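Sorry, explain these tokens?

___
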Amino acid sequence: MKNFNTLKALCMLVPFLLSSCSTAKLQHNKAGFEPAYSFAVTDNDTPYSQCLQQLKMIDVDNLPIFAVGEVADKSGQINYDENGHAISQGISEMVISALAKTNKAHMVERLDLRIPLAEVKLSEQKKLSRSIEDYGKLPASDFIVVGALTELNFNIVSGGAQLFVRGIGGGARTVVVNVALDLRVIDSKNFAIRYVTSLQKQIMGYEVEANVFRFFGNSLIEFDAGAVRNEPMQLGVRSVVEMAVYQIMTDFLKLPGAIGCSLVKSDAMKAHLDIKQPIKNSMKEN
């Protein structure tokens, strides 16, 4: 009976083995292998991109000049499985892209001045076709945007169920993580902090899995099937960045906001304190 089961299992694997063998010999021509290509290049937008683009319709003058400084990943999270960071290290560039989508902010480069300063230096040495006088006075910024991604919390909510009977079964689970961003706007003239925004976004992932495996003699035959659908982590980061920039343009610069683009308010933390009366001023007036 064991031999029959083993033979049955091998018969089930024959079509798979034959298909694998047919692809083992890769086909190519003299020009080399044809690369696989799937989807076209698209805009890297989030749901909040349309809110930023709505600001283009506003007719205003005297647009401020922004400089974007370092917006670092200070979550402290490292992806040990892939020997790298868990979060994108290009958050400053995301802020620059978000400001550009509004078309309501002039920008000057302050994040990486190595090449611009090298250009000026070469011009001073008369090694460029442009003279140093052609540079004139460089525009100064009105506001500087800096900050950090301050939180990356894994498994703030998780749930699911699995059931296996004699190696046959399946399950599903849901995992929620969140990211948080803190940005501040600095007045370039006096270095005063003029505006601060602190936002967070939850990111959900869903996984369905089915496992079937049985022993045939001394051999283990296993079949796995499933589906994973996760909101990309970096898309969540870019969404928080774009909402923060939208707040800077509307709350700070007082540009009119678009309908449907308001920040979703959450009062989940208020339930942990029972404040029924406003705090009274205990300071005596002189």
